[in-house]
């Protein structure tokens, strides 16, 4: 695999919401393969799977996977500017899923999540692109195929969504390992038993 070191930035979000000031996490989908995203790029599933596994081995497993608020024009996260640390990442079919803890001093990000702002995520990495096109009915659609990709930042929190199904939720972690939404007044109609079951099934590894 040959990388041309072209900076590739992808953009994702939502949140549930406040009970206690415990550890605040963001959990959800941060990217997708095999679709043309909002930036006009498509990642083959095999390319995305390889990039995700490499990122897990290099950054997540070594507790060094950081992300920032907004996208700086550089490929790697700056610890000084970090707002969250990615603790888990995995593939769910063609979707890239992640869990990240929000840092204590990330006051702006915490305020945005608590306000109900839609959490949107965007990946960063280095790779190679090839111009391609497909026919959708009688319409020719052009896009850039990502032929090689090295993920350097699992996700930053940004304004703007690229992957159509990429949604993150802001949640607090309970002592028993479950997750609780952050705002009772906004979630009074939730079936709590079903919610907890789905969170355990889908997000807790």
Which key phrases capture this entry?
single chain, 205 residues, alpha+beta, six-stranded antiparallel beta sheet, four-stranded mixed beta sheet, 18% helix
Please tell me how large the radius of gyration is: 17 Å
Strands of the widest sheet, in order across it, are 4-5-6-2-9-10
Structural class: alpha+beta
Unreliable segments of 5+ consecutive residues? 12-20, 181-190
Average predicted local confidence, pLDDT? 82
Tell me about the biggest sheet? 6 strands, antiparallel
Helix-strand pattern, N to C?
EEEHEEEHEEEEH
Number of helices: 3
- Per DSSP E runs of 2 or more residues, the count of β-strands stands at 10
Q: Helix fraction?
A: 10-25%
Strand fraction band?
35-45%
What is the rounded distance between the termini?
31 Å
Q: Which word captures the global form?
A: globular
Give your account of this protein's structure.
With 205 residues, the protein is α+β, with helices and mostly antiparallel strands. Helices cover 18% and strands 40% of the residues. The strands form two sheets. It has a six-stranded antiparallel beta sheet, with helices on both faces. The chain has a four-stranded mixed beta sheet with strand order 1-7-8-3. Strand 5 and strand 6 form a beta hairpin. The two termini are 31 Å apart.
Itemize the secondary structure elements and their pairings:
Blueprint: E1 6-9, E2 24-32, E3 41-43, H1 45-60, E4 66-68, E5 82-92, E6 95-102, H2 107-115, E7 120-136, E8 139-158, E9 168-173, E10 179-180, H3 192-202
Parallel strand pairs: 3-8
Antiparallel strand pairs: 1-7, 2-6, 2-9, 4-5, 5-6, 7-8, 9-10
